[in-house]
Write a structure and sequence with these properties.
Layout lengths: L2 H12 L10 E9 L2 E8 L4 E6 L5 H9 L23 E6 L4 E4 L16 H4 L2 E3 H8 L12 H7 L17 H27 L3 E12 L6 E11 L2 E3 L2 H4 L2 H21 L8 E5 L7 H14 L4 E6 L2 H7 L5 E11 L2 E8 L3 H10 L3 H19 L15 H11 L3 H21 L9 H18 L1
Helix pairs in contact: 4-8, 6-8, 11-12, 11-15, 12-13, 12-14, 12-15, 13-14, 14-15
């Protein structure tokens, strides 16, 4: 076992109460799978993961690779070999904080012995993207009065354990199946969904899931129908998908899926790998609701390892300092006409400044400190406080002034004033042509001040 893996295990033993004491993914190695031609490695260190990827850079391939853990059809990986990897077979290798490794390849039919902690993933289905959200509120026919979510719930709860070691999908009697599904979703699922909806402050509430059967459109047989009964501001809606805006519809869908994941997890009677993998859930959410989604993750999934993927750089920058993430940025590059990803470990401006400080590149260090200071204040200040009386963007000086004015904590206020002094006498001169004598201790003090402020504002 490597020193790194041994240290990870030592940390788990020494701190069993921390979230990192739970089983986590420490590393993933992807070889000749989907977008990845050749071998690529992502070191997660057991942390939550925030990943930005521009279109076509491999972000979705990492998402799909994680999805293999929740799949029982591992051998199908062979269908997703990279088209430029001639004569090679795709491999995805996972390393876990409990010292176990899993290599998924074309000859793997079932989980090897000792990997039972992964089995629960197929029950609570941790993969969620915007396409799944659409099943709650999108219909091809705009005239449809209601959305039938039967297929969504059928797939979501297929492995829900019922009596006599039977899962929901194994119930063959239609009446028993329908009654069982109804009892599942019309109890705790509604309560928990509404609790999560309250985070979004969307004024939306789920009243019930309506169950009925109707003749199929072709007149052949009967099909099950499940509709969500919703109210908005205490008024029941007959066609919520045509009335609610995109943000509220997205909030509704996220709440139902999150509640279902937690409900399914509760049915497991043994410790398992808890991951939540989210891909582009922010498309229809404004900045305020994006931050509320982050609050849900902190409150409801604090014992999960969260993987958050986005193609929106603004959201990546907004989220990067809001949680303890391992951060990655993926960019598209071509080598010999073969598209390949450039993987950049998403260091913050403070981290970049420290790198330049170590290299004695003080001007570059000051530039990143200034950028980091400005970004930190913009994450801290409400949007309206970032504008002057003419609704123009404030510069760094103006942002500091607003922050000092609204700050009510002595420690934070003192750091803000120190950083403002650093800005005037150090950062500004170094960011422009200036013959000022540079003292390393002054820059070191500015780095320490910015790190302190970052921790205080978290």
């Amino acid at each position: 076992m490597t020193d790194e893996r041994l240290n990870t295990l030592k940390n788990i033993v020494s701190d069993p109460e921390s979230n990192y004491g739970q089983i986590r993914i420490t590393k993933i190695k992807i070889s000749d799978y989907r977008f990845f031609c050749g071998e690529y490695e992502f070191d997660f260190n057991g942390k939550n993961v925030l990943m930005y990827g521009e279109n076509g850079s491999g972000k979705s391939s990492v998402y799909k690779a994680l999805g293999l853990l929740a799949s029982k059809k591992y051998s199908e990986i062979t269908e997703h070999v990279n088209i430029f990897s001639e004569g090679k077979s795709p491999l995805v290798e996972f390393s876990f904080s409990n010292g176990r490794d899993l290599i998924i390849h074309s000859d793997l039919d079932e989980l090897p012995k000792g990997m039972e902690f992964i089995e629960g993933l197929s029950v609570f289905s941790p993969m969620l993207d915007y396409k799944k959200l659409l099943k709650v509120h999108f219909s091809m026919n705009e005239k449809d009065e209601n959305i039938n979510i039967y297929d969504m719930l059928r797939i979501l709860f297929k492995d829900y354990p019922c009596k006599e070691k039977q899962t929901l999908s194994e119930i063959t009697d239609p009446i028993e199946y329908f009654d069982t599904l109804k009892s599942i979703v019309n109890s705790e699922l509604i309560v928990n969904s509404n609790e999560i909806l309250n985070f979004f402050e969307a004024d939306v509430k789920i009243l019930s899931f309506g169950f009925q059967q109707k003749f199929a459109s072709d007149g052949r047989g009967v099909e099950p129908v499940i509709n969500i009964k919703v109210e908005f501001k205490d008024n029941e809606l007959t066609s919520y998908h045509n009335f609610l805006n995109e943000a509220r519809l997205t909030s509704l869908a996220i709440s139902i899926y999150f509640s279902a994941i937690l409900r399914l997890l509760d049915t497991l009677n043994k410790e398992c790998l808890k991951i939540l993998v989210l891909d582009d859930l922010l498309i229809s959410l404004d900045m305020s609701n994006r931050l509320k989604l982050l609050e849900i993750l902190k409150n409801k999934f604090n014992n999960f390892q969260i993987f958050f993927f986005t193609h929106d750089k603004e959201s990546f920058d907004l989220f990067r300092d809001k949680m303890d993430w391992e951060k990655f940025e993926l960019y598209l590059h071509e080598i010999d006409n073969i598209p390949k990803p450039i993987i950049k470990k998403g260091a913050s401006e403070i981290d970049r400044a420290k790198e330049f400080f170590a290299q004695k590149e003080y001007e570059a260090c000051a530039l990143f400190l200034r950028k980091g200071f400005e970004k930190l204040l913009k994450n801290y200040l409400p949007r309206r406080e970032q504008l002057d009386k003419n609704f123009n963007e404030l510069d760094l000086s103006g942002l500091i002034g607003k922050a000092i004015f609204i700050c009510s904590f002595d420690d934070t206020l003192q750091i803000l004033k120190s950083l403002n002094s650093n800005r005037k006498h150090l950062l500004n001169p170094l960011c422009h042509s200036n013959p000022k004598t540079i003292h390393a201790n002054e820059i070191k003090e500015a780095i320490e001040n910015l790190e302190k402020l970052n921790e205080l504002l978290k």
